[in-house]
Design goal:
The chain is α+β, with helices and mostly antiparallel strands. It starts with 5 loop residues before the first helix and ends with a helix. Strand 5 and strand 6 form a beta hairpin. An eight-stranded antiparallel β-sheet has the order 1-4-5-6-10-9-8-7, with helices on both faces. The protein has a two-stranded antiparallel sheet with strand order 2-3. It is globular and about 65 Å long.
């Protein structure tokens, strides 16, 4: 995401939709004000179809834009998320938890998330869960199917907007890998750790990222959270 506030991006899309609807309404009003004979001779089904197609395309662009922003928003700082309004929180499926909470990852694993953290749940994308902790740590959980490429290739694909670098294998097992990496965003360096597992062609990746903690501090924090999943 660039430095432009989220609400401006949403507003520009909404205004674009509004303009198209106004054009459609104006065309409809002009047609209605004509006489029946004139209406019959001037009405062109192609024009109506063109406007309808434009409206549908704008709706699709709006949905795609929302999805893209939603997927990227937890890469922003804790303070940036804290400034979102209620409507934006609803649009992006974000919720602030008021007390320490056990957050289920699946039927057997839960993550203990501290009070005042933000959580985001998605149901129609590879990003299934995102958490933003008060110390600016981001936790992402991706789940997806992949027939081609290995775990590292898939991680790079997930993080293609970030162009992750310095990928280092900390643990290399046939069906699981634990790696470290980093990337630059808005002039800041982010450290990251990811646990990637594979089962029957289904990949699960849990990533921990922070631009304020040192690599060693983030590693210890990552181990602390991962230890919860083994209980």
């Amino acid at each position: 995401m660039d430095n432009k506030p989220v609400w401006r991006t949403i507003l520009s899309v909404v205004l674009g939709l509004f303009a198209i609807f106004r054009i459609a309404m104006t065309c409809n009003k002009n047609s209605s004000s004509s006489s029946n004979s004139s209406y019959s001779s001037n009405y062109q089904p192609q024009s109506y179809q063109s406007v309808t197609s434009a409206i549908e395309e704008s709706k699709n662009n709006y949905r795609n834009n929302i999805q893209n922003i939603s997927n990227d928003i937890f890469y922003e700082s804790y303070d940036s998320i804290n400034k979102l309004g209620d409507s934006e929180m609803t649009i992006y499926h974000i919720k602030k938890i008021k007390k320490d909470t056990l957050l289920p990852l699946d039927l057997s694993a839960k993550l203990n998330v501290e009070a005042n953290s933000y959580i985001q749940k998605n149901y129609d994308d590879s990003l299934k869960l995102a958490v933003k902790l008060p110390d600016n740590t981001s936790i992402f959980m991706h789940s997806y199917e992949a027939k081609n490429g290995d775990a590292l290739d898939n991680l790079k694909a997930l993080k293609k907007k970030k162009s992750i670098q310095n990928i280092s294998l900390k643990l290399d097992q046939p069906n699981s890998k634990f790696v470290s990496y980093n990337y630059q965003q808005n002039g800041k360096k982010y450290n990251g750790y990811a646990l990637i597992s594979k089962e029957d062609g289904q990949y699960t990746s849990i990533e921990f990222e922070n631009n304020k903690l040192s690599k060693e501090e983030l590693e210890m924090k990552t181990f602390k959270f991962l230890a919860q999943l083994t209980k």
